[in-house]
Amino acid sequence: MDLFDQVSEDIKKAMKARDKVRLETLRNIKKVFLEAKTAPGNDGELSDAAALKIIQKLAKEGRESAKTYTDNNRQDLADEELAQVAVLEEYLPKQLSEAEITEKVKAIIAATGASSMKDMGKVMGQATKQMAGQADGRVISTIVKKLLNA
Hints:
7 helices; mainly alpha; globular; 0% strand
């Protein structure tokens, strides 16, 4: 069962369970999936990889919104966003820890023979491809910079 079908099934389950937050979040995911499927240039299909990218983007936006709400003393709205992010994260692969990211980046640096900041693009290209969906690009970038400057 692909991710689109899984979300559709989970919408039904959330309706039966009367789980308002989950239902709202899943409906939003499905709406964005449908928009991606019918976007100009698409063939009406949505791969799981593309679906994961969409969910990652939604989760990232939710975390940023929650931070903004917290900064503006609106904890009630921040809590709502974080509840939705929790639902989104159920569909994402397990996130790598900083130590795991560092190990993978060290291996990539060794494999590519990178030695200075000039090689950052080469390392980042491989790192983001290998850790797609498992780590935030900013975290990867920070670790790559730290290791190449060392």
